[in-house]
Amino acid sequence: xxxxxxxxxxxxxxxxxxxxxxxxxxxxxxxxxxxxxxxxxxxxxxxxxxxxxxxxxxxxxxxxxxxxxxxxxxxxxxxxxxxxxxxxxxxxxxxxxxxxxxxxxxxxxxxxxxxxxxxxxxxxxxxxxxxxxxxxxxxxxxxxxxxxxxxxxxxxxxxxxxxxxxxxxxxxxxxxxxxxxxxxxxxxxxxxxxxxxxxxxxxxxxxxxxxxxxxxxxxxxxxxxxxxxxxxxxxxxxxxxxxxxxxxxxxxxxxxxxxxxxxxxxxxxxxxxxxxxxxxxxxxxxxxxxxxxxxxxxxxxxxxxxxxxxxxxxxxxxxxxxxxxxxxxxxxxxxxxxxxxxxxxxxxxxxx
Length: 352
Hints:
By secondary structure, the protein is mainly alpha-helical. Helices cover 69% and strands 6% of the residues.
């Protein structure tokens, strides 16, 4: 039973490693968006799916990670008439510190997260979105204001993740191809760490808090401490995803890190499966790739038109309708999310 699964994972790993040699820039960027979304969704699933804490402010911590990297990695510059601050640190150090800053922001909010639950925590984290948007639009020396700021290219182990071409096996590698392997490594490490947390003692304590917090407290689980710690961990996952998104976009824009992004992350973990690392990855791929696919094939799809052309539904709007409908279908007919489909099918084959 385990050998076919091993072969499947090996084949998938080889496929992911080979894709940059065959895909064009559009598909590589779509895959990078999906991997960044998967990292953030894993963090949110630890908080919401495993611990039962509703967060509506996940986009805030993505913005903290993205803009922290820009400030730490870029030097002082002038863009659109604004002088931007920057420390000019090495790229790898800027990534580590940006994730730490996102964790610090989560730590400042963690006392509230440790004491509130359900809709009350959701409303409290919702305030982070409005605070974050106000700061991003007005702290122009750090963020560049409405126009955002350019993201400096990452340099890691002597490799510059910019658009300078590096030819490998006759294939020109630019920023998207180079970032693919860095993002794939980050996603793998984040998924393995989260899986270890969920399968170990912390995961059992988190599930106990989710299922019955009073019983968990009676059994000796420090409920407030666990809630606060998981909130910090989830913020660090979001910060890393924000750094990766900034590197893919090559420019940070405040408007992107708003309410819609937070709702999309909630849709990811519901569609994929609450409390599951695999479900977070599946849900992130579904929600993040759907608008890309609709945009790419808008001319061939009924009722969908390219952005700005009129006469139909824009791809972004159509994608929200579709994964909104997917949330309803999952809640009604597949409570465990898409990640449970394989398990149910295997159980049925075993019963036959």
